[in-house]
Design a protein that fits this description.
Keywords: Coiled coil, DNA-binding, Homeobox, Nucleus, Transcription, Transcription regulation. It comes from Nymphaea colorata. Belongs to the HD-ZIP homeobox family. Class III subfamily. InterPro entries: HD, HD-Zip_III, Homeodomain-like_sf. The protein has 71 residues and is mainly alpha-helical. The chain has 3 helices and 2 strands, in the order E-E-H-H-H. It has a single domain, classed as Arc Repressor Mutant, subunit A (Orthogonal Bundle). The protein has a two-stranded antiparallel sheet with strand order 1-2.
């Protein structure tokens, strides 16, 4: 027998574990530029990047972290 578990975020909302984030070409360009400046930004630096770059403002910090890890 298999059990089914659901993932929840910090607010208790269900998270789709198969969610795929598509970045616009402008977002990819901005992330690439930032990667060349700092390939391994800290959590604080990632938050700062989101505040400073309007193109990245609608991306969750966790998604940016994953982008840098996958880069």
């Amino acid at each position: 027998m298999m059990s089914v578990t659901s993932c929840k975020d910090s607010k208790g909302a269900a998270i789709d574990p198969g969610k795929y984030v598509r970045y616009t070409p402008e977002q990819v360009e901005a992330l690439e530029r930032l990667y060349h400046e700092c390939p391994k930004p800290s959590a604080i630096r990632r938050q700062q990047l989101i505040r400073e770059c309007p193109i990245l403002s609608n991306i969750e910090p966790k998604q940016i972290k994953v982008w840098f890890q996958n880069r």
